[in-house]
Specification:
It is a single chain. The protein is α+β, with helices and mostly antiparallel strands and 154 residues long. The chain has a single domain, classed as Thiol Ester Dehydrase, Chain A. Strands 1-2-3-5-6-7-4 form a 7-stranded antiparallel sheet. The chain is globular, with a radius of gyration of 15 Å. The two termini are 19 Å apart.
């Protein structure tokens, strides 16, 4: 885990070492920390093999808007968990969504660029601004909050 502390670029193996999410609910392929504890850039390559495309919608696959919110939340969680001393002892729980906007459908073949900025941190509550971009076009954005909590031991 110590080798991850000073890194700024993370592949899927690094990401699943810090985030508790697993297939089919891990939605980020790569991460680059832009400013430690402040902002990051994440990438998600979307293929027709994504489980949600099978039922949303047959013949016209579109990524559900709530999945774009989850992707932004996972990126925000990584930004914070990457900064704590023992990230495996903590978790981030989504607490609120403000000003969510879905501007264009996200479809198979898109590469989703996710930009997340920490707006405010007070005690264990973090407020973020996230943007999902496809080919330099904003497709979704939100202001959302999450709490840093103790991770359940299993």
């Amino acid at each position: 885990m110590n080798e991850l502390i000073n890194k700024t670029k993370f592949d899927i193996n690094d990401i699943i070492e810090i985030l508790p999410h697993r297939y089919p609910f891990i939605f980020i392929d790569r991460i680059e920390i832009v400013k430690p504890g402040e902002s990051l850039l994440a990438l998600k390559n979307l293929t027709i093999n994504e489980p949600f495309f099978q039922g949303h919608f047959p013949g016209q696959p579109v990524m559900p808007g709530v999945i774009s919110l989850e992707i932004m939340a996972q990126a925000g969680s990584f930004l914070m968990l990457n900064q704590v001393e023992d990230p495996l002892s903590k978790n981030m729980l989504f607490t609120s969504v403000e000003k969510a906007r879905f501007k264009k459908p996200i479809v198979p073949g898109d590469q989703l660029r996710i930009e997340v900025d920490l707006l405010k941190k007070k005690l264990n509550l973090c407020k973020f601004h996230g943007r999902c971009i496809v080919e330099q076009v904003l497709v979704a954005e939100s202001v959302f909050s999450a709490n840093l909590v103790e991770r359940a031991r299993v």
